[in-house]
Amino acid sequence: MEIPFHKIDITEEDISAVAETMRGGWLTMGPKTFEFERTFASFLECDDAVAVSSCTAALHLALAAEDIGPGDEVIIPVTTFVATSEAVLYTGAKPVFADVLTSDHTIDPEHVKQLITPKTRAIIAVHYSGNPARMEELLQVAREHSLILIEDAAHAFPASYNGRTLGTIGDYGCFSFYATKTITTGEGGMIVSPYTEKLERIRSLRLHGISKSAWNRYAKGGKARYDVYENGYKYNMTDTAAALGLSQLKRCGSSLQKRRKIAEHYESFFSKSSLLIPYEICSENMSAHHLYPLRLNIELLDLDIDIFADKLMERGIATSLHFIPFYEFTYYQTSLKKEDYPGAQWIYERCISLPIYPAMNSEQISYTADAVMDICNKYKKTMPGRLTNEK
Ligand SMILES: *Cc1c(COP(=O)(O)O)cnc(C)c1O
């Protein structure tokens, strides 16, 4: 059996929606983008949202809207996708890396506190796999030190904590519609914030810093004359992408339900085994289940995570790593010490992501789960007198 790590979920309805927009003759940012913004905001139960070309762009614009730049520091988790750090570097500010919690892989608020200096301006928390970072503690730290709290919600749509949708709890929420994310526009992102004026600035910054009404300067009735308020970026979404996003949004609830079922199915296989360590989710959460983190109890196994991934691959099952910590990368190595990140290292040595997407059927889920248990049992360390009845 071949089980890819991800399979994009594109329906005929999605294709028709994009085709219809293309036939309409308006390709770049326009009415579909604005409709997507309004609809997305209503899903999050917030007032407004600004569509952009990626989550990386959204993160960059959140920082830019706060005039964060050279001389400033932004605290981010050491275990995240490189985009979180990249966005900070775009502004000229310095990313400062905090360790992550071994329970759920989100940024450790205690370590964040230790890293705050007079230069710190913001914290970016990542809702790993669709589960909330410790928002209450982080908000408190942010308020105490007058820091901006940005939610990297690339994994977290749709998800909530204590009934509040993720992305709307901090000062900014940044979403991704990359091909592998829970809804896709091919490439795309969205930014939300409770601050109306900041969102208006972001609206201008995403399209060259030009005046709000100038997006349609080539259209009939559009104004040829426009003003530039400040130096902006080319970060707008296209209407063809937005048409796909609108069509995908209609299924976000049912596809979440399918991912949740898969997670529960995996859980039913894995929860009883001491060879695996459960990923801890608190009961107030509604996770987006973007990833399924599988954690091996490597102390009891005679293989490492790379060999484990190879063994799954031999059986046709593709996995992925979320994420390689920054201290492993050439570009970041010189400034970071692995010893400072015991939490991230613990995760890095134990965790891989299993396939979890709506197109998986129960046969594929069981096949994957069986393979995991079978490999674990084959490589179980022999320890006389201990754990002899492992299932
Ligand atoms: C995917 C991802 C991003 C970047 O999203 P793009 O839309 O591809 O720019 C940022 N942060 C995290 C945690 C991600 O997984």
Protein model, in words:
- 37% of the residues lie in helices and 12% in strands.
- By secondary structure, it is α/β, with parallel strands linked by helices.
- The protein has 2 domains: 238 residues, Type I PLP-dependent aspartate aminotransferase-like (Major domain) (Aspartate Aminotransferase, domain 2, 3-Layer(aba) Sandwich), CATH 3.40.640; 136 residues, Alpha-Beta Complex (Aspartate Aminotransferase, domain 1).
- A 7-stranded mixed beta sheet has the order 1-9-8-5-4-2-3, sandwiched between helices.
- The site of pyridoxal-5'-phosphate (PLP) has 14 residues, from α3 and α4.
- The site of pyridoxal-5'-phosphate has 14 residues, from α3 and α4.
Q: How would the blueprint of this fold be written?
A:
Layout: H1 12-24, H2 31-44, E1 50-52, H3 55-65, E2 73-77, H4 82-91, E3 94-98, H5 109-115, E4 120-126, H6 135-144, E5 148-152, E6 160-161, E7 164-165, E8 172-176, E9 189-192, H7 196-205, H8 239-249, H9 252-270, E10 285-286, E11 292-295, H10 305-314, H11 330-333, H12 342-350, E12 351-354, H13 362-378
Parallel strand pairs: 2-3, 2-4, 4-5, 5-8
Antiparallel strand pairs: 1-9, 6-7, 6-10, 8-9, 11-12
Helix pairs in contact: 1-8, 2-8, 3-4, 3-7, 9-13
This protein binds pyridoxal-5'-phosphate.
> Span between N and C termini?
24 Å
Helix content estimate:
25-40%
Could you tell me the radius of gyration in angstroms? 22 Å
Total tally of structural domains: 2
Note the main attributes of this structure.
single chain; 391 residues; alpha/beta; Aspartate Aminotransferase, domain 2; Aspartate Aminotransferase, domain 1; 2 domains; three-stranded antiparallel sheet; globular; binds pyridoxal-5'-phosphate
